[in-house]
Design a protein that fits this description.
Number of helices: 5
Largest sheet: 3 strands, antiparallel
Oligomer: single chain
């Protein structure tokens, strides 16, 4: 059921996440920065990422990360929150995300 103005976002099951999609999503420096911010600071609303891109571009990056299985979005009141799915990804691809972040 939709709450407020947003429909709930869909997320892939971790079993259907492909390594190519994770790597493709993390190839972009802005998306790596989003993941690093979430790693350092925990869950954050979409509007709190101070990155040098337009809001529509930031939405595209969130969607790409979500579709790749890297982050989960959920609604908290009027805010759409972002959280990493590292535990799930770690079970499927051990060490992958941190290795890419350390290399990039």
């Amino acid at each position: 059921m939709s709450v407020g103005r947003w429909a709930p976002p869909s997320h892939p099951d971790v079993e259907s996440v492909e390594v190519d999609e994770v790597l493709r999503a993390l190839a972009d420096p802005t998306r790596r920065q989003i993941v690093r911010l979430l790693l350092a600071e925990g869950d954050r609303p979409c509007g709190t990422f101070d990155l040098p891109v337009a809001a529509s571009t930031l939405s595209h990056h969130f969607r790409t990360l979500r579709n790749a299985g890297i982050l989960r979005q959920y609604d908290d009141g009027r805010q759409r929150m972002n959280t990493l799915r590292l535990d799930e990804l770690e079970s499927r691809f051990p060490g992958l995300v941190r290795t890419v972040l350390d290399a990039g």
